[in-house]
Structures are given as C-alpha cells and as structure tokens.
Specification:
This protein has 13 helices and eleven strands. By secondary structure, the protein is α/β, with parallel strands linked by helices. The protein folds into two domains: 245 residues, Aldolase class I (TIM Barrel, Alpha-Beta Barrel), CATH 3.20.20; 70 residues, Orthogonal Bundle (Non-ribosomal Peptide Synthetase Peptidyl Carrier Protein, Chain A).
Length: 326
Amino acid sequence: MWKIGNIEIKGKTILAPMAGITTFAYREFMRSFGVALCYTEMISDSGLIFNNEKTYEYLPRPEEKRPTSVQLFGGETTKLLVAIEKIEKHTDNYDFLDLNLGCPVPKVTRNNGGSAWLKHPNELIAMVEKVVKRSTKPVTVKIRIGWDEKHINFKELLPKLEEAGVSLIAIHLRTTKQLYGGKARYDLAQNIQNLVSIPLVVSGDIYTLDDAIKALEITGAQAVMLARGQLGNPFLATQIETYFKTGERLKDPSLYQQLDYLWTLANMMVEEKGKHMGILVMRGIAHHFIKGFPFTKTYKVKLTKMSTLNDLELIIKEIKNQALLI
C-alpha cells in the first residue's frame, strides 16, 4: 500500500489512459481484475471550454468507483486553467487531476499538447505550478523520457516537477519520436525513484508478470501502468496484484476464460454506449482476447467486422466448437 498525496493506493497496477478504450465500462471491467487506480481517456481542454457534449462524456460518471484520475491535455496554460474550472463545476467524483505531458501523437503535439511540453521545460514547470495552485485535487503528471534521443531530459524534470507540487509522476520510458515502437528505455531508468520523494509509476513494454517485476526492480517505482499490455489480457492485472501480495504466480487464462472475459466486456460496453457504438468500440478490442491462441486468425478478422452482440456470441461459439476439435 502506498499513497498519492493523502489517498491510499491499494495495489501495484494502474490502468493507463487510452483514447477510445478506457471508457467508463472499460474502467469498471478492469477494476474487477484488481487494478488499483483508473485514468479516464485523455480529455481536451478545448472540448471542455467550448462545452462539447462528447468531451464531457469522458469525465467520471456519478456511479464511478474510486480512486479515479481525470486526465487533461492542452497546449496553453490559460486554457488548461479554465478547463480545470469546468471540470470542477461538472463533477467532484474523482481523486486526481492528471496532466498529459506524454502523448506523442502529432495531432496533439502540433498544438503544443502532450509530450510537446517536454521541448520547453521552463514553460512546462511554470504551467504545472499554476495548475497545482488552481486544482482542488492533487495534481499528477504523465511524461515521456524526452522528445527524441538527443533531448532526453526526464531525470532533470523529475525533481523540478516534485518542487512544482505534483503528487505523482508516471513515466513512459520512450521518447516522443519513438511513438510506440522500439524498446522502452529501462536502461536509462535504474533506481529513478531515488530522484524524488513522491511516488513514481512506470510504463512501457509490460506484457507479462515478469515484465512488471523487472520494471519495478529496475526503477524502484511504486507501481506499473498497464496500457497495450493489458489489451485482451485483463488477467495480467490479477497476476501482478496476486504476486506482490502473496508471491503466488497465477497461470495464464485459458481460451475459454478469455472468451468469457470478452463477452463480459462487450456487454458492459454495449450497456454504456448503446448497441451500435458499443460494438464499434469492441471491433478494435475484441481480437486482442484471442491473440496467441492457435487457429484463431480467421476469427480475428470476423471480430473486426461484427455488427451486433449476437454476431459476437456466434463467433465465440464457433471458436469454442473449433477448440473441441483440437
């Protein structure tokens, strides 16, 4: 158990903010596997300021379980401060305000949002100081190690961010230019927790229990942030949490268990977003649940083309019947 500010975090796994994926339904789904903290999808300051209805749907619902972090992004200090005011008028049902200083996607960075802030460290720190003063919730940040290989500056930023008043720093151990390719740079992250007294969380290439163990051993961080590694593998969170609580190594789930997880998530997503939009979201997620199992290639394609829950149910039955023949 550890704390962000005065709030206890009862585990070693955190669900990363993932655009188009970590919706309310997805967060609740992952909480059932033991994740200790969930982040919303990243939320645009402009969307809030201009009262975009869809943007407000990204904020926590009244029935949202806790703890939850609201992640905000934007490229101008003034707009970020106004957006915080909008959030606080809309809801109090969250625990932390997180600043996205790590998104590498060009449509975000070209407007100085996300990891573009890393190119201007003085402006970044000045912005964070103002956000900390404005927010009534503890402020956390998510960063990358730097803009590119020639401008890796995260070690210099860590103590400055702590001094600016943030309560936690999550670090994706890649540069902006790496996007999501190449290897996460754990070679640069030995004992980085020692650089600050606030908790650190690490992200990057965590696909297995051993990946999580190694990440925490190398960095000394308090927890791992699960992103692509938990897509279609929600039980990874349970494996990590169980190991760090009891030392037990749980077996990977069977194909049948994976299909049950898929069906559960699909129903939750449809309940949240409706029959049409729920299935559209699941088209991009469902195939991850059968990744690595034999004979499933054909079914991966079918899952990306399904239109209804009934379609999904039939595909799941086909996969189970095929498995009986092997």
